[in-house]
Design brief:
It comes from Rotaria sordida. This is B box-type domain-containing protein. Residues 103-144 form a coiled coil. Keywords: Coiled coil. This protein is mainly α. The protein has six helices and two strands, in the order E-E-H-H-H-H-H-H. Among the domains are: 1-61, no CATH class; 72-149. It has helices at residues 28-61, 64-123, 128-150, 159-162, 166-169, 189-200, and strands at residues 17-19, 24-26. The protein has a two-stranded antiparallel ribbon with strand order 1-2. Strand 1 and strand 2 (24-26) form a beta hairpin. The longest helix is centred in the middle third of the chain and has 60 residues, at 64-123.
Length: 202
C-alpha cells in the first residue's frame, strides 16, 4: 500500500478513513480520535454560542445606554425650546420698543402742537401763516400715525432661522470601532488540524 495512504497519526496502520476537512487519511482508531477532537471543538463552540446568547439577552434587557442618550436628547430639546422662547420674547420686546419709540415721538409733537394751539387761542395772535403751518403739521402727524398703528414700519427678519437645517442640529450616528478593538478572527478549523497532521509526520 502506498505510504501516502498510511494513517497520518500512527504512520503504521492503513489509512482507511479519509477526512474531507483536513484532507488526511487515518486508521480506524485514530480517525475516531480525530472525530472526537472535532466534536469536542464543536462542543466548545456551542458553549461559546450559549455565552453569546446570554450576553445578547443581557444587552437586550439593559436599557441604560439608550436611556442615557434619550435623556440627553430630552435635555437638548428642553434647552433648545427655551432658547427659542427667549429669542421670541426678545423679538416681542423689540417690536414694542420700536413701536413705542415712534409713538412717543408723535406724542411729543402732538403735545407741542396742542400747546401752540392753546397759546394762539389764548392770545388770539394767530395769522394766516400759522393756520397753514398748523394744518400741515396736523396732516403730517396723521400720516405719521398710520404706519405706527398698523406696525407697517416694523419688519420681522427671520432669514437666519430659515437657513437652519434642523436635522443637522442634532442627529445620531454609530461610532466606528477601531481595528484594535475588533475581536481577532479564529483561524479556520481545517488549518488547525492540518498543522496537527503535518507535525505528526515530522
Amino acid at each position: 500500500m502506498a505510504s501516502s495512504n498510511r494513517c497520518s497519526i500512527c504512520g503504521k496502520r492503513a489509512g482507511t478513513c479519509f477526512c474531507p476537512g483536513c484532507k488526511t487519511y487515518f486508521c480506524d482508531d485514530d480517525f475516531q480520535s480525530h472525530r472526537g477532537i472535532l466534536l469536542n471543538e464543536l462542543d466548545g463552540l456551542t458553549i461559546d454560542r450559549n455565552d453569546l446568547q446570554a450576553k445578547l439577552n443581557e444587552a437586550a434587557s439593559n436599557k441604560q445606554p439608550s436611556e442615557h442618550l434619550l435623556a440627553q436628547i430630552d435635555e437638548w430639546q428642553r434647552t433648545t425650546i427655551e432658547k427659542v422662547k427667549q429669542a421670541a420674547e426678545l423679538a416681542r420686546q423689540q417690536v414694542f420698543k420700536i413701536a413705542n419709540s415712534k409713538r412717543e415721538e408723535i406724542t411729543r409733537q402732538f403735545q407741542t402742537l396742542s400747546q401752540e394751539l392753546k397759546e394762539l387761542r389764548d392770545t388770539k395772535g394767530v395769522v394766516e401763516q400759522d393756520l397753514i403751518r398748523l394744518k400741515q403739521e396736523i396732516h403730517q402727524l396723521n400720516e405719521d400715525l398710520k404706519p405706527v398703528a398698523q406696525s407697517s414700519t416694523i419688519e420681522l427678519n427671520m432669514e437666519q432661522s430659515d437657513k437652519i437645517v434642523w436635522q443637522h442640529m442634532i442627529y445620531v450616528e454609530e461610532k466606528s470601532v477601531s481595528a484594535g478593538n475588533q475581536p481577532r478572527q479564529p483561524k479556520p478549523m481545517g488549518e488547525h488540524f492540518n498543522r496537527i497532521c503535518n507535525e505528526s509526520f515530522e
